[in-house]
Structure formats: structure tokens, C-alpha cells
Amino acid sequence: MSQNPVSSSTKSPEDRYILVTGSTGFIGAHVVDNLLARGYRVRGATRSAQKGEQMKAARPQYASKLDFVVIEDFTKTGVFDSAMDGIDGVIHVASPFFLDTTNNEQELILPAINGVKSILSASAKEGSKIQRIVLTSSFASVVDVDRTPPREFTYTGADWNPLTYEKAVDPSSTSVIAYRGSKKFAELAAWDFIKNEKPQFDLVALCPPMVFGPVVHPVPNVESLNESNSDIWSVAAGTDPLPKARVTAWIDARDLAEAHVQALITPEAGGKRFIPASSEPFSYDYAADIIKEEFEWAKGVVTDGYTAGVKPVASYGVDGETVARELGVEYRSFKESVVDLVKQVKETIV
Ligand SMILES: NC(=O)c1ccc[n+]([C@@H]2O[C@H](COP(=O)([O-])OP(=O)(O)OC[C@H]3O[C@@H](n4cnc5c(N)ncnc54)[C@H](OP(=O)(O)O)[C@@H]3O)[C@@H](O)[C@H]2O)c1
Question: Residue ranges of the NAD-dependent epimerase/dehydratase domain (predicted)?
Fold first, then answer.
């Protein structure tokens, strides 16, 4: 597409209105804050009016800039139609991300796919001003977990997880496999929509690996922490054995929010698929070292049953460099991310 009106010079951020789905979740709330800090008006889509109210109450300085729309079941056709009035751009973050499932297809895969179809159809309705949609996909839609690539291999936005739909929905598949399928087939549905429907907007897909960092959404207790952060907190809380990392790549949620907003306003990003990821590998052993070193209270709590003092080594490369270069994102260190989260949980949530 020739021009992205979310960034064109005829309108300032103050005149632009961005819809963020998953706005009361871990990553979505950071995206909301990044947009507000830049001056955008933001409409958050949420399943919970109460969480929307809590987000607003925690941001009194943005009272006139932030509103929420409650969409209880975003997989139903047409539910987003009335939320689109005046919207200039969409960041679609919402997707089920929990692993304690009873029916993988119904709880993870179909909601992810139908949520994408629903928001894209609403954005393509006649009269829509939307010119760009940024989709939070996942490294799960990129990585081939059955392959052991050589250390010098680097995954890029051109790679796709070869998982089949049949395997993803097979009742004997784990929820982790089903989650990978939910992200792959939801992202494919978005690219197919662009190809087949030729809407007035273009698409940018972001495929982050593990995401950690402090929370800015309502989290009443540690049990309500999102999936990825609860693993880091479990290390601080003394879990033994430590969680098993499925990948060594990660990104801080604040940097990921920056990548989303840059993807929304950078004209050249249209039609591209990126992997926002720090070049520094992580491990839960390294998290345990950091937590013990930084927090006096954790010294006797964190388990000794792990390999201490060994910096993680990536088993293959992940191209986070393209996001740094093309979207201007600088990555925080794993240490900063872990310290900020653990300090916050210990002081304000536990
Ligand atoms: N955290 C990671 O390590 C990681 C890594 C790669 C990709 N991602 C992706 O990032 C996105 C956000 O995840 P997160 O880590 O921020 O987790 P999260 O806190 O659990 O957020 C998930 C968000 O999706 C919404 N959602 C889930 N199922 C929904 C449904 N059926 N209908 C409507 N909304 C639904 C939730 O809405 P409510 O707020 O209303 O509950 C929540 O806001 C997801 O697309 C996830 O796949 C996460």
C-alpha cells in the first residue's frame, strides 16, 4: 500500500484513534500505555467491564483518551462492528493463551482463528478508515520444534511451523502443541484474508518468543499472572525443579509494545512478518541466579537444585535484528526484565 494514514503527516497522534484487543491482558495493556504515552486515543476491547474500569482508574491522566468496549465473545461474527466507529488502526493482541485446557480445539484453536476473522471482517466494512492492522502472532507459528537446526541457523520471519491442523486438533496432542497450532492457523487466516478479500488495510504480523516483564494490567493475585510471567515468578517462589524452557529466545513486554506501535506507524512495515526478540538468550537457571543475586529475601527461597552460574547459550539464532533495524526497537536485558517483574510481584501482588 502506498500510504499509511496512521502515520501520515495530515493527522497528529492526538487525532488518531486506535483499537487494541486483549487490552486488559499482559501484552495488550503495555501496547495501550505505549500508544497513550505517544498521544494516541485508545479504545480497548476487553471481555471484562470491571478490568476496563480498573485500567481507566489506574490512568486518571488519560481519562479523556481511553475508553473500553466490552466484547464478551469475540469469536461471534459481527461483534466488533460497533466498536469500529472512528477507528484509524487496529492492534489485535487477544488470543487464548493458557495451557490448562479440557478441549484444545474449542478453547484455543477456534477462538484464535475466529477472533482474527472477526476483527478483520469488521475492519473491512464499508466506511472503515482502517489502513493497517498489527497482529500479535507468535514464534510458535515460526519454529519447527521437531527439528534440531545447527547452531549457526537463524529463524526469520520467512519461516513457518510445519504443524498440520490435524495434529494441532488431535485430542492426543498436548495443549502446548494446540497453542502452537492456534497461533499458526490464526496468523494464516489473517494473511489469507488479505490475499482473498483485498481489503483497504494491510497487515503486519509480529511473532515474539517468550515475553516477560512487569505488568500494567489488573492482576489481583499471583494465580492471575499470565502464563509466561508465572513461570518466572515460580522460580522466585521456590519451585523445584525449575520450569523447562521450550525456547531460549525472549523479549520484554515493554519492548514488544514498542514494536507493535512502530509496526502500526512505519509505512514500510506493511505486509511484513517480524520476530521481535532480544539477541540475549534466557534460561530459568539464569533467572534463578539473577533473583538470588538481586533479592535478599529470595536467597533461601529459590531452589538450589539447578545449575548455577552458567549463562544460557542459544541452540540456534532468532532474527530480532530486523525489528531493531526496521522498527527502531532497542531491547532490554533479561536481568532488567526479571528484576522489574519479581520486585513488582513481591511488593504489590503477593
Ligand atoms: N506471553 C508470551 O510469552 C507470549 C509469547 C508470544 C505470543 N503471545 C501472544 O500475545 C497475546 C497476548 O498474550 P498475553 O501474554 O498478554 O496473555 P494474556 O494476559 O493471557 O492475554 C490474553 C488476552 O487475550 C484475551 N482473550 C483470550 N481469549 C479470548 C477470547 N476467547 N475472547 C476474547 N478475548 C480473549 C484476554 O482477554 P481478557 O483480558 O478479557 O481476559 C487477554 O486480554 C496472545 O495473542 C498470545 O498468543 C504471548
Answer: 18-272
- Choose the residue to mutate in 32, 54, 97 for probing ligand 1, maximizing ligand atoms within 8 Å of C-beta: 97
22 alpha carbon – ligand 1 mean position (Å): 6
Give ligand 1 pocket residues (Cβ under 6 A): 22, 24-28, 46-48, 51, 74, 93-97, 111, 115, 136, 138, 183, 208, 210-211, 226, 228
* pLDDT one-digit tens code per residue, 89-145: 999 999 999 899 999 999 999 999 999 999 999 999 999 999 999 999 999 999 999
| Averaged pLDDT for residues 326-332 | 98
Q: Which three cell numbers stand for residue 326?
A: 526496521
Contact 150, 138 (CB under 8 A): no
Q: Whose CA is nearest to atom 31 of ligand 1?
A: 111
Closest C-alpha residue for ligand 1 atom 36: 22
* 13-223+249-280+317-332: CATH class: alpha beta
Torsion of CA 18, 23, 26, 29, to 10 degrees: 50
> How many Å apart are CA 229 and CA 226, to the nearest integer?
6
